[in-house]
Design a protein that fits this description.
Blueprint lengths: L4 E2 L3 H10 L3 H6 L9 E4 L3 E5 L9 E5 L12 H21 L4 E6 L11 E6 L19 E2 L3 H16 L4
Antiparallel strand pairs: 1-7, 2-3, 3-4, 4-6, 5-6
Helix pairs in contact: 3-4
Length: 167
């Protein structure tokens, strides 16, 4: 299915990421106005769809506790456990959403979006090379508006696939 792209208010996005309370902590505590479809959560981590669906199935994986350094704020055991979860989510996502390449990135900085998280982004088959990689993740391209019901159904299917993947 093809979805229309809509512009993202990049100025508001930047302002919010730099000055608003941590959006991931607010999702964990359910203290956030705009809904995020949660795919999975346990005592250590939360998995949810990005509010800005730059590509269909764009997912975030984050520790529940506010941590800012991708490795430095974790023991080796904690980090490996989170990577096992990233693997399970990535495989489930790749199996459920047509994917030429699954991108896994840790973005954010001390200047904005400080709560560390991983972006899991399925690149659809057939995207021209010049529109792949970081170009596919540009906010300026706009976001896909996918009905909440469809995102909820996709979350269920991903969660079911995760249950069958041992890591």
């Amino acid at each position: 299915m093809t979805y229309q792209r809509y512009p993202i208010d990049i100025k508001a996005y930047t302002e919010q990421s730099q000055n608003a309370p941590c959006f991931i902590c607010r999702i964990v505590t359910r203290d956030i106005i705009e809904p995020h479809t949660i795919i999975y959560e346990d005592d250590a981590a939360i998995v949810f769809f990005s509010k800005h669906q730059l590509l269909y199935g764009y997912t975030l994986v984050a520790p529940r506790q506010h941590r800012e350094q991708v490795t430095g704020d974790f023991s080796l055991e904690e980090y490996v456990a989170l990577q096992r979860l990233v693997y399970r989510v990535a495989e489930a996502l790749r199996q459920e959403v047509p994917t030429e390449r699954l991108y896994i990135l840790s973005l954010g900085s001390q200047q904005g979006n400080r709560h560390m998280h991983w972006h899991l982004v399925p690149l659809p088959p057939g995207v021209p090379y010049q529109e792949q990689q970081l170009e596919a993740l540009r906010l300026e391209k706009g976001e896909l508006r996918i009905p909440d019901e469809e995102m909820a159904a996709l979350a269920v299917r991903i969660r079911q696939r995760m249950e069958r993947i041992c890591a």
